[in-house]
Amino acid sequence: MMEEAGQCNDAGGDPLKLAFKRYRAMNYAQFRDCAERAAAIKAVRFQVPRPQSSDASLKEFIEVLQYPNGFYCLPNPFLPPARSDAADLPTRLAADAVRRWPGRGRPADAGAIDDDLDCERRRTNLDIEPDRPALLFDDAIKFVDEPDDRLFASSWLYKLRWTTLGAQYNWTARRYRVPQADDAGWEPPQIPGCLADLAAQLCDLTGAWTGRRYAAQAGIVNYYHPGHSMCFHLDTAEPYMAAPLVSLSVGLSAAYLLAGPDRLCPESLAPIPVLLGHGDVIVMTGQSRQFYHSVARVFPGTSGRAAGPDCCCCCDEDRSGAESGAAACSQTEQCRLMRRYLRLTRVNINVRQLLQPGQGWQCLRDWTAGEAEKAE
Fold first, then answer.
1. pLDDT attached to residue 70
2. Model-level pTM?
3. Kindly report the CA angle at 310 between 306 and 311, in degrees rounded to 5?
4. Which of 108, 113, 124, 322 is buried deepest, with most CB atoms within 10 A?
5. Residues with Cβ < 8 Å from 29, sequence gap 6 or more?
């Protein structure tokens, strides 16, 4: 779970907490230098050509940093937009993650959320709030010209911390929601097709998933602001842990730390620092898929191209391709609000595959039931 400043800093004698506290105290330049030194020692750099079948938004040649234990970093593999007033693909995905993917919330008469049911909807941390507006982004338009960021931070949009896509993750139980009733035909909602396709392409670029089609079946979007962090944790709620985890960073830069499989192993005594900026991608495969990792801090003022002054980052579909209207569109309230949001936010889009090829969703229900029994 995402934490406010200070909640991860009670280090005691825990080496991971000590490392977290040390890196959290660094400024941007200090952490960047540490990350560059670590990459020079730990990572193997190589380039791969863009596959002919891949998204045209990817660069012709893509740099890959291969760290030990199956951890890969792709420093912004996306092409810059053709026009100075257009948005790159990461920014467009972030706009969807803010405007569309959180949905409309729960109807006012829907009653309390039942964690054992209601597993067909996208969920956000704000769905339990009875006063949540239906459309978070539209509700925040009134703050677009507010000069004081502290007032903008009082908006419902700024309070958005996470959105779940596809198979729905239960943050309390730390497993995926499945219906209790015996429904052989049950399937969770699909994640957005553009995101699923991109995740598969990014997996292919590492070479770690060659010959297999990555099936993106669940997604979690985290929204960080300066002062936020994510303590060291494991992502082990998926039955098929052999499949990679794909993560895209948009907006503000973050101090990412990769440790090891337990809190006292050699990797955890000296976690690897990785600076994740706008457009950067990480792919966790092999052993690293079950390693502790964290976000020690988010650096203000580092959003760069994501929040450029003329960027048209959330055009409606009927206007997005019109060059003549792009400049005017970039000055709409929607585009100006999105740019402001990205100047104050890191949007982190994570994608996972849950099941082995050929498995049905009944396998997720059976596995989840077994995990629940172990926890009792």
1. 97
2. 0.90
3. 40
4. 124
5. none
Q: CA-CA distance, 178 to 168, in Å (whole number)?
A: 8
Q: How far is CA 64 from CA 158, 282, 303, in A?
A: 33, 10, 22
Annotated binding site: 233, 235, 293
pLDDT in tens, 247-263: 999 999 999 999 999 98
Residue type at 254?
A
Binding residues for Fe cation, by number, are 233, 235, 293
Q: Which amino acid is at 318?
A: D
250-268 exposure pattern, b = at least 16 Cβ within 10 A, e = fewer: bbbbbbbbbbbeeeeeebb
* pLDDT interval class at 12 (50, 70, 90): low
In angstroms, the CA 249 to CA 78 distance is: 12
The CA-based dihedral angle spanning residues 324, 327, 331, 337, taken in that order and rounded to the nearest 10 degrees: 100
φ, ψ of residue 7 in degrees (nearest 5): -75, -15
pLDDT band at 271 (very low <50, low <70, confident <90, very high): very high
The CATH architecture of the domain made up of 2-102+160-375 is Sandwich (2.60)
Containing 272, the helix (H) or strand (E) segment is: strand 272-276
Mean pLDDT of 232-258: 96
Q: What does the alpha-carbon distance between residue 248 and residue 283 come to, in Å, rounded to a whole number?
A: 9
